[in-house]
Amino acid sequence: METAEKEFRIPKTVAPVICHTISDEAIPGEIFLDVVSKCTPKHIQNFFDHDALFFPIRTAQAERPLLLSKEMVVLVEAVSAFPPGTMLALSDRKKAVLDVRSVGSIHCEVLIEGPIERSRVLDVLNQSKNFVAIVWQEKFSLVNIRHILKIVEL
Q1: CB–CB of 135/75 below 8 Å?
Q2: Between the CA of residue 77 and those of 27, 69, 84, 118, 123, what are the distances in Å?
């Protein structure tokens, strides 16, 4: 039986990312955010910190979105450049070297939001749900805290 009804879709914003996995695979693609305004770094972080265990990522290689486990994701690079005034410009930053499983050492800046009394990298890690925001290679990125082996603050 065929239906003549149109499929209802919730408007989504597409954000280009590269997901690095524990199997040393880099998966370029697009994630779908539940925002209708301009995408910000906080939207991407909230997407990865959400309780869902899997997320869809649209890749050029597959006809349908790939369902990827967040547990398998070690590092997420946001491909979009974010304009001044976003979370990147408003956050304090602490330089650090992160030893990350299957990626190696990452020289980066950990983004620190919130009150001055929580301005340590340790506080950011302990209050993070799943991913910590960093600036790596001059791009907004996220690191899965479960795959960080060691951190040296600079």
Answers
A1: no
A2: 10, 16, 18, 25, 23
Residue at token pair 């695979």: 25
Looking at residue 97, its pLDDT comes to 96
- Enumerate the β-bridge partners of residue 28: 18
Distances (CA, A) of 117 to 90, 112, 121: 17, 11, 11
Torsion of CA 41, 146, 65, 15, to 10 degrees: 10
SS3 23: coil
User: Whole-prediction pTM value?
Assistant: 0.85
* Residue 41 near residue 13 (C-beta atoms within 8 A): no
> What does the pLDDT look like over 39-73, one tens digit per residue?
888 899 999 999 999 999 999 988 999 999 999 99
Q: Say how far apart CA 83 and CA 27 lie, in whole Å.
A: 25
C-alpha count within 13 angstroms, C-beta hemisphere, residue 34: 7
- Contact (Cβ atoms closer than 8 angstroms) between residue 34 and residue 12: yes
| Cβ contact 44:35 at 8 Å | no
| Closest residue by Cα to residue 129 from 49, 54, 46, 45 | 49
